[in-house]
Amino acid sequence: MGLLSILRKLRSNPDKELRLLLLGLDNAGKTTILKSLASEDVTQVTPTQGFNIKSVQSEGFKLNVWDIGGARKIRPYWRNYFENTDVLIYVVDSADIKRLEETGQELSELLLEDKLRAVPLLVYANKQDLGQAVTAAEIAEGLGLHNIKDRDWQIQSCIATEGKGVKEGLEWACKSIKKK
Amino acid sequence: MRLLKFLLRYFPPGIALEYTQGGDVKTKMIDLLDLSAKTDVKALAESIRVSEPMITESVMDQLVETLEKLQNKVCDSGAKRYYKYKTLQTHLLPLTNIAFDKLGKRCLTGSYDRTCKVWDIDSGTELLTLEGHKNVVYAVSFNNPTSDKIVTGSFDKTAKVWCSQTGHCLVSMWGHDAEVVVARFSPTQSKIATGSMDATAKIFHLGSGQELGTLKGHTAEVIALHYNNDGNQIITGSFDGTISIWDTRTFQRSSVLIGHREEISNCLYNFDCTLVGSSSMDKTAKVWDTRTDKCLITIHGHDDEVLDLNFDNNGKKLATVSSDTTARVWDVSTNFKQLAIMEGHREEVSKVCFSPNGHHLLTSSLDRTARLWSLESGCCIQTLGGHTDDVFSCAFSYAGDTVITASKDNTCMIWR
């Protein structure tokens, strides 16, 4: 993708073209989810130092999915990408119980952002295949999702490395946009 | 009028006559765009003497010597081999655009980390970090040839002007309703022109930052903008598929170049501003005559979107690059024939530029390389590899001795 295609994807797109923003802590599995959506090989994923963009077709929509690196030092730059977001996708490593509080803190800050106001929220409870993983319901509890009143939200358990649950989440995202 | 001395301009070739008139020192430029290795320099000197009364018999030897020097420099088609000289590695996030100063001593990098950095090419060290933008710094430029100021255009909807010595922000330019993706200094006046995703271009006063006027008319994002040589005209290219020509004194649109069927990816003037070249997602490029606003030729040949184009320094050749992974070079001085096709990149080619003397082409691609090509043979002379992600930008310094490449991998490489 050259600079020009970044500009093209920045456009406040006409109908049927949507912008999905994929955020979450480092090592949550954002890039793996992105690659899984695009049916690409997920065995070679390295930490994202910047961002990745891929276009996926679903439910008659063209989805431009922006995957932004989650390392602590680059989280302050997430706001570079908020403009014109149609759906916010937040990825949580369900087995990283130690950082559940940290990821909840980042999410609640995102939900206060003016540019993301009323944007539907999809949370992926990723890595459900790992032994120590907690369930989607427990993640929802930990993140306080039930207190969200100002937008549609959904939690979806998934195993990105096997592609399980990823498509289902996206289908919800498309439906929530159709409702708007 | 008394002639003082000859001054050389290498790219594109020309000489300037410095002379005194009524106590003032003035210069007169003579373009020698056709100068080649085959040119008979003595005959050329003679023809200049005939049309320039300032040149007397006594300075003819000196004129011939000057022209020979120019010829040697300009017509040296030998392929220089570039080596990775430095890797500049301190941006936290991907780079965007890059720019050289006139002398090739410093370069600018814009980045997603909201800064623009100024680099010393010789030492590979960071001279300045220009901080203040609140979002991605996309457009960067020096006010060449003086290079004492820098303009940046940002996704935060502003443009800023900076002192290139101290790094102080001199002025911020507000007014656009969306990302500023192109910003240029007027070549002759203290003005700045900006193009934005809000479908307008604006002209600002350089000193005060005051908005002087808005160029309204495009129905989609303005993504390319250039001044002509005297600064009285601007061309803008837009995602609405058209190119507009504007009078910078009245802020009115003087004409619209209509013909492309999809978004414009770039547009620019040739050296003497007689032609405008445009490239488009409709898989074609077009060349327009700026005096009649007519399309002279539609260049077919690419099998996919044409992503960038550039004229050589003489304004006689045009290079186009495409998602079809090729670069092509076209003759725009006579018959618009394809002169060369460069095949070798494995993915789309995003940027293209000519070497200053016009003998080589530089391209950057999503295949993580930049490549140098011989115009004569169309062969790849050298692959500049090492980046670990898409190469977004590439540029030659004015003298052609340095190349820079910028990548999505957050680094910039200097090649010498």
UniProtKB/TrEMBL annotation, chain A:
InterPro entries linked to this entry: ARL2/3 (IPR044612), P-loop_NTPase (IPR027417), Small_GTP-bd (IPR005225), Small_GTPase_ARF/SAR (IPR006689)
Keyword annotations: Golgi apparatus, GTP-binding, Lipoprotein, Magnesium, Metal-binding, Myristate, Nucleotide-binding, Protein transport, Transport
Domain of life: Eukaryota
Pfam families: Arf
CDD domains referenced in this protein's UniProt entry, alphabetically: Arl3 (cd04155)
SUPFAM superfamilies, per database record: P-loop containing nucleoside triphosphate hydrolases
Transmembrane spans: none
Chain sites annotated for binding Mg(2+): T31, T48
One Gene Ontology MF term: metal ion binding
Residue sites binding GTP per the record: G24, L25, D26, N27, A28, G29, K30, T31, G70, N126, K127, Q128, D129
Cell compartment(s), UniProt: Golgi apparatus
Signal peptide span: none
Coiled coil region boundaries: none
GO cellular component, one term: Golgi apparatus
Gene Ontology process terms (BP): establishment of localization in cell; protein transport; system development; vesicle-mediated transport
Family: Belongs to the small GTPase superfamily. Arf family.
Name under which the protein is recorded: ADP-ribosylation factor-like protein 3
The species this protein was found in: Cephus cinctus
TrEMBL record, chain B:
InterPro entries to which the protein is assigned, alphabetical: WD40/YVTN_repeat-like_dom_sf, WD40_PAC1, WD40_repeat_CS, WD40_repeat_dom_sf, WD40_rpt
Entries under Pfam families matching the protein: WD40 (PF00400)
Sorted UniProt keywords: Repeat, WD repeat
Stored CDD domains: WD40
Domain of life: Eukaryota
WD-type repeats, residues: 88-129, 130-172, 173-214, 215-256, 257-298, 299-334, 342-383, 384-416
PROSITE patterns to which the protein is assigned, alphabetical: WD_REPEATS_1, WD_REPEATS_2, WD_REPEATS_REGION
Name by which UniProt lists this protein: Dynein assembly factor with WDR repeat domains 1
Species of origin: Cephus cinctus (Wheat stem sawfly)
